[in-house]
Amino acid sequence: LGEWGGALMRCGAGGIQSGRVTLAGPAQRVPWLDIRRIATFPGPRLHGTWFASLSLGGDPRGRRPQHTASRNRRPQQARAQPSGGDPPLTPASAPAAVPMDSSTQPAPATGGDPAEAPADPELPRLTVTQVEQMKVEARVADIYRVLFGAAPNTKSIMLELWRDQHIEYLTHGLRHLGPAFHVLDANRPWLCYWMVHPLTLLDEVLDDDLEDDIVDFLARCQDKDGGYGGGPGQLPHLATTYAAVNTLVTIGSERALSSINRDNLYKFMLRMKDESGAFRMHDGGEIDVRASYTAISVASLVNILDVELAKGVGDFIARCQTYEGGIAGEPYAEAHGGYTFCGLAALILLNEAEKLDLPSLIDWVAFRQGVECGFQGRTNKLVDGCYSFWQGAAIALTQKLVMIIDGQLKSLYCCKKPSEEDACGTSSSGCTSEKSSSAVDYAKFGFDFTQRSNQVGPLFHNIALQQYILLCAQITTTSVKQVLEGGLRDKPGKNRDHYHSCYCLSGLSVSQYSAMIDSESCPLPQHVLGPYSNLLEPIHPLYNVVLDKYHTAHEFFSKE
């Protein structure tokens, strides 16, 4: 499921440098892969051409280039080469070009562990992460090369979202999972959410019997003292509570919504509240931003969020923002895309987004979109399809926070010049904004956010992200004789799974609607890559539930 998939549901490298793109780590290039005019942008707002112009250079067979000996160079001693196999992978020795990738295609040979490769005075040693990055770029380049060389009709087919195949894959999973899924026994509400939510994004309606089965199953997961466990009889946990509530809201029937015991749920959340202001995932469990988001999201969605639950959460999340601009799971840890979304979304629901350094956060998230056109979760990590939502939604949220961002930038400028008291029309001590002391109506914040229009265009390349999802997260093929498989994946070379199907489609929806200025209108055709039939249902980006389902739940719980 990837590191964030595992972290999110847990119940118990190179690519972007500041202001420039590198392909294999600092100050290194891959001579066999020349991706031109990619992300040549001076700041977080992406410009330039992301539909990469690809060309091959060097020896396509992966041979090490012959270096001309210098007159003053001492003769090199013969080095022992490993018996058999290919020469070690270096920036000048790359995997040969292969056809369009599929999930069953073997990875390009690397010639052994790069860390054990003989040293070369001409070439720096490659780390394992750099080698893996080169492999990913090679696979992605092969896919994009086919697209750019295809006829217009073929391009339209390649960029099509395979709705029927995805619906079949997800519906089958709801009815039957193989024995290999026993390892996810403590995460069964997550499995429900990862299938029900993307089916709703695809505008697929579940039959009544299947909906009733899901509601009955989740009712058995609900603890008598509040919250939902990973399965019937298991201890309640904030992560599976989030998954269960989101699933029930997505089903949206009165029977599903009324099955949530809100009184006991509120008591459970109070027990998870820590004196630091943050939340624990379960009794005696870990404290992190993920727990705070799942608690605040669920409480807001079912209208039980109050001052007692909200107290101290914003300050804890603000302490988790790192020097890079992203948000870590806990103070002094590494910035991560999943935690960044969780922290920002929680603070918006609390009406405390100004506690974050938003310009710095935007800068960090924007530079996580790499040469593959998808997002990475952390600095110097590989691209991963699930971050299409975690990172894409995080930066899309900021498009509705421009007033706060402008205020922070002006405040930063003013506070750098304390001697010029008239620069802000006030003294330098007045540069920090104060929140109103009036009573807080938490129930309004999630709803009001949907009524706001985007105050600026996309702060990431939304078309490039759609390209990655459609071409690299779907299992692509060039042969019409092969059967197209449903389900989406992390990256080329990986297998499909329900987790990535959920968050790739969620990210696709975010990217399709991110260019809209009017919140009531539909995206224009130029904002939807491929045929317009690719357009998914819009989501509420703070909760990641389909927008119509959110409005139904909001109306239902407002009457309670």
Automatic annotation (TrEMBL):
<feature type="compositionally biased region" description="Low complexity">
    <location>
        <begin position="106"/>
        <end position="120"/>
    </location>
</feature>
<keyword id="KW-0637">Prenyltransferase</keyword>
<comment type="function">
    <text>Catalyzes the transfer of a farnesyl moiety from farnesyl diphosphate to a cysteine at the fourth position from the C-terminus of several proteins. The beta subunit is responsible for peptide-binding.</text>
</comment>
<dbReference type="InterPro" id="IPR001330">
    <property type="entry name" value="Prenyltrans"/>
</dbReference>
<protein>
    <recommendedName>
        <fullName>Protein farnesyltransferase subunit beta</fullName>
        <ecNumber>2.5.1.58</ecNumber>
    </recommendedName>
</protein>
<feature type="compositionally biased region" description="Basic residues">
    <location>
        <begin position="63"/>
        <end position="76"/>
    </location>
</feature>
<comment type="subunit">
    <text>Heterodimer of FTA and FTB.</text>
</comment>
<feature type="region of interest" description="Disordered">
    <location>
        <begin position="50"/>
        <end position="125"/>
    </location>
</feature>
<keyword id="KW-0677">Repeat</keyword>
<dbReference type="InterPro" id="IPR045089">
    <property type="entry name" value="PGGT1B-like"/>
</dbReference>
<dbReference type="GO" id="GO:0008270">
    <property type="term" value="F:zinc ion binding"/>
</dbReference>
<feature type="domain" description="Prenyltransferase alpha-alpha toroid">
    <location>
        <begin position="162"/>
        <end position="545"/>
    </location>
</feature>
<dbReference type="Pfam" id="PF00432">
    <property type="entry name" value="Prenyltrans"/>
</dbReference>
<keyword id="KW-0808">Transferase</keyword>
<comment type="similarity">
    <text>Belongs to the protein prenyltransferase subunit beta family.</text>
</comment>
<dbReference type="InterPro" id="IPR008930">
    <property type="entry name" value="Terpenoid_cyclase/PrenylTrfase"/>
</dbReference>
<dbReference type="InterPro" id="IPR026872">
    <property type="entry name" value="FTB"/>
</dbReference>
<keyword id="KW-0862">Zinc</keyword>
<dbReference type="GO" id="GO:0004660">
    <property type="term" value="F:protein farnesyltransferase activity"/>
</dbReference>
<keyword id="KW-0479">Metal-binding</keyword>
<dbReference type="GO" id="GO:0097354">
    <property type="term" value="P:prenylation"/>
</dbReference>
<dbReference type="GO" id="GO:0005965">
    <property type="term" value="C:protein farnesyltransferase complex"/>
</dbReference>
